[in-house]
Write a structure and sequence with these properties.
Length: 276
Amino acid sequence: MEVSETVTPDQRGPEPVPEAPPSETGSGAEPAPAPRRRRRVARTIGLLAVAAVLGLVGGTAVGYRVQADREPVALPPLNQPGLAYPAKPLPGAEKPKPLPAAEDLRTAAEGDLRKLLVAKPAGAKANPYQGDGWVPVQRFAAEFTSPGGSLDHQLDLGIRRIAQTAWATGAHRRVEVRLIQYRAGDVLGAREYIASQQDYMPRKDYAGGEGTSLKGSADGRLYVFPVERKPGYLDFHHARAYFYRGDIAVEIFISDTKKISAKDIGSLAERQLERL
């Protein structure tokens, strides 16, 4: 089916001139003039826009030229007193003493990271699923959904080393505590990692909520997951804690067939925070 093209008044040509009616005096009368076409408003607007652009460019060029012809003017002095340094080094008796290791958090973090892990409770048994000591970065990344992408991400954050302790108490309670240390750089790796894990917690397939804040920490949070029930299996309870201190990120996991309270995960997280 052919579609007829719509012709606007501006696209049409001049209308045909009607023939002059017969004159009573004869055929010498001139025909009526053809109607004039309307001017396009778009052309006028375009001309105004071009004129405005030319005016702006011309004004800018003139301004640069005037500024270039002026003599340079010295800038005012900075409102800051000169920095003073001692002419000679301080005597040995006047030099400040370094902080003791007990007060220097940096010194403690540079030592054996495993010594900063929270102590196991009395009567704890070995965790059948996790052990104590160092965790290779590759094995740590392998626990995520995308191991390759997780490994690249951890390397970008500047991951340095991972220390872990784990134990079991009661019939089915399992506990795991990890310290993940990152190198100093433009990115605060510990904070970025903890923030990324906390972003997952409100999802329905995780904790399903914002959790509760960890006392004594800046951004630490505690999460108690909803109970998981399946026919033929014991109930599964799970709780986590995520926080960081300086360049060390901390993650704590507790699982059990019995209910885990916020106090259970909170007291353990507070003890680990005190160790840092």
